[in-house]
Amino acid sequence: IYGAGVVATFAILAAMYAHAYRIRAALELTPIEVLDTRVQIYRNLGFVAIGLVSILVAGITARFAPQQVGYAGLVYFSIGIVEWILGEYHARMRKRIISTAGTSPA
What pTM value is reported for the model? Predict the structure, then answer.
């Protein structure tokens, strides 16, 4: 149940950010804001993937090793890995945008 809630919540957030990204010209987003929007899409999709893996682990362990179903919760520790990777990517791309534009961030 928890995994389904995680998937639904973060899928909705990813869809909302994707919509904003699609209409970025109409919203007049700056390059930094476009990057922030893309990173939020990736972040939310990462959480969706983690939720799906947790559901998969829970389903498999419930079928074959019911006493091990708690391992599905341990999957959520991978959120830290996703956040770290995206944080590094975001910082690197932000520096690139700032150095290319030659201006200070918005």
Answer: 0.88
